[in-house]
Structures are given as C-alpha cells and as structure tokens.
Amino acid sequence: MMASRSEEITDLIYVFSKSQYRAKEVTPSVERIEKRCLELFGRDYKYSIIHNTNGDVCGHYPRKIVFLEYESSDNHKESFESTVQISRLQDLVNRSKMARCRGRFVCPVILYNGKHVCRSSTLAGWGELYGRTGYNYIFSGGSDDTFGDAEEVLEDDCAVRNNDSQLFDKVRGSDIKLLKYLSVRYICDLMVENKKVKFGLNVTSSEKVDKAQRYADFTLLSVPYPAVILSWDLVQQTQNYLKLLLHIINSDDENGLLVHCISGWDRTPLFVSLLRLSLWADGAIHASLEPSEILYLTIAYDWFLFGHMLPDRLSKGEEIFFFCFNFLKHIVCDTFSVIKKQSVYHRRKGMPLSSHSGHWNRPITSEERAPNVMTEASPLGSFKSSSSSSSNHSDQNVTRTGSTPLAVPGRRCTFVPERQVRLEAVRELFLAAYSSTVGLKSSAPSPSGAISGLLEQFARGVGLRGTNAII
C-alpha cells in the first residue's frame, strides 16, 4: 500500500538526517528518492538528463541531473522550447567541472519563462586546482570522497603562481562558455569574503575579484549572507535578497541567473528552494504539483541530492534547512509575487489558483495570518554590482546607486489568499514531518531581539558574529 504524502516526506527527512548524499554510494531508499524526483519533474516539463554516473562529474550532485527544456503540461509548451543541445551541454559540463570549488559546476535547476536559474559553488582558487585532493581532505573531515586517489601536487609557490593565468584561462574559460550557453547573465554571489584562505592557500575565489576580469560580461551581484547590512536582521535580509532574485528572473529580458555561495550546499539551496516555492505558490512553475509534492521535490532535489550535510549541520546546531521552510511564513504577501495583477490567476490556464488547489485549499484564520513584512525595502546602495564597461545593459543594472528593484513606493503589503494557503500548507507539512523525525529545538530569545536563538545558531555557523561585524 502506497504511503501517504505526509509519510513520504517523513521518510525522506529521516533518510536525509542520517547521511549525506554521495553519488557513488546509492542505497535502495536513495534510488526511490531519485526516481520520485524524476516523476515529479516530468509532471510539468519535458526534460533531458545530464549524466553524473557514480559521481564522475561531481560526487555530491545527483547521478541524473535534470535539465528542464520546456513546459509540457498545456497548449503553450512550445512558447519557450529549449535551444540547448544536451550533448553539447554535457560536454561543457565535463570541461568546466574543475573551474569551481569541489567540482560543483554551474547547474540549471529551475526553468521560469524560458530562463534558467542555476546553482554552483564559487570559483576554485589555485590552491585547490593544484592540490584538489589535499583540499578535499581538509574540508571533508579527513575523507576525499570526490576526486578519487589522485596525489596532491606540491609545487614551488612562485612556479604555481606563474602558471595561474594559463590554467585559469582554460578552466574559467570553460566555465564562462557554460554560463553563456545557458544564457546566464546575472551572478548572485552570497559569499561574505572575496576569497577563502586555508593554511595560506587561496582555495576559492569570487568572480568579482578575478584579476583578468574574465567575468566582465556578466552582471555580478555581491550579496553577502548572512551579514548585517543597513541594520537588517536575518529575516529582513533574507526577504530583501529573495525579492532581488525574483525581480531579476521576472524582468523582461531573456537572461538567466546563477546563485552560489562558497561550497554551494548551505546558503545556495536556501535561496534556490525559496525561489522554487515562491514561484510555485504563484502558479508560475510546477503547476500540477500539490503542496506535499513540491515540498518533497525541493527537499529531495534542492537539498538532499545536491549534497547538503544535514547530519553535520544538526550536530552543530546550524539549522539552515529548518530555517528555510519555517521562513515561508514571511513571504506569503504580494510583494514576493511575480504575478502583476491584483487578482491572482493561473498564468497558463487562466484559472484562479484556488480552483487548482483542490482539497487542501481552506480559509485562513486571523491567527494563521503571517506578520506583515516591510512595505518598502531599504535602499540597496551597499549591494555591489559590476558588469562590462562596454555592456549595453547598463540601463538595466539592478543594483545601481539610488535605485532598487525591491522598493515598492506607496504600496502596502497585501495578502494573496491563494498564495498564502499554498505556502502555509507546505510549511505545516514540513513542520509535522520535521518534528517527528529530527525534532524541534527550543532556544532562549536572542539578546539582540532581532533573531531567534535558533537563527543565531545558524548565523554563527556560516559567518555572522554578534550583530555588527562580518567575520
């Protein structure tokens, strides 16, 4: 007898909480999770597979990476038909895997209006490129589970640095070709630091500090997270960053977006998952999936199969995974909606979302109504953006001083019942499954009064100390 949807999510979180996914160590339960993800993607999309058999390309990416080509659930499936050839894409992936930390290459994960939202880690530095095995040994707790038994290459520091340019031209050139093939123009960098230094080696680096300016043709958005910007607390900061990302992918151009942090398995899935759920709540993507199904898909694919280390994070009290889904209560109002109209209708079929939501649609009580978020975002003058000086897109620079896509002058936050019902349903399903497997931890109120104790644990784990400093 098939397990109920809630039991399916509970089983998924249980498996997730016990071990980190490794593409070369697959169990029957993991195979079921992989198969279920493909079935859920197939409900609304025609897709191809980027092959990562046994983790040959990346050890903590899915064995079968889904490349969404176009929507196939209605009569408009040809509107955004893919021009990408999967064989060419596979070749570019294989060539570019060395360019980024841990081999976590630029990978498309969401398709919205014909534009790809991609995820990755940050750029690999020369310390990792020349000594990848030693680097992974350091960062993986003593086990190199990604790149086999290759020996660490030790060279004279000056000799290594003299060869930097030629090596970086090759590997970063391949990375750039992949980005351009996917029509990605915007790169959202969640790193707090410009470079990550371990034992004196620059093991990773950000596109914004590439000395040869290889990424000058892209719009680079430096959005350090978590970090205190303009006295924002973590909830408000997350809201503002999400609004920024939604603004970018909902713009009228045809350019895609890359989101990454350092390793690409903590902050990156947070925003990828929030983007997927927010767009789904508007009926803009995964239109046929119910709350339990979209919750399963984003946990399984965006978090588990892309290598989030939930057991390790739980042991340290860094509960970014929990924060993501509990945070849904803060994005239910229309300032996070990509639907322009006051009355929200299904973008394809012209039906109200409430008629699509079926049995799980119910009235929202006043007690369940989420607290208001800010009605007008703070200026983003501190967000750093760069693009080519010869670019003809300067008029669309989303982070230019004195202007912000997040500001909604004279507009009050209003609630969209259908959107709120959907997100609250997802959140309730998650909380029930999470509490019965991992368990909810209670924490004392934050001394700062801005963030709960739980969120402070998460913030400390990824770089925030106190309330005024970035470490």
TrEMBL record:
**Which regions are flagged for Polar residues bias?**
395-404
The annotated region (Disordered) lies at 377-405
Q: A single Gene Ontology molecular function, please?
A: phosphatidylinositol-3-phosphate phosphatase activity
| Low complexity bias (residue ranges) | 378-394
What is the official name of this protein in its record? Myotubularin-related protein 14-like
Species, as recorded: Sinocyclocheilus rhinocerous
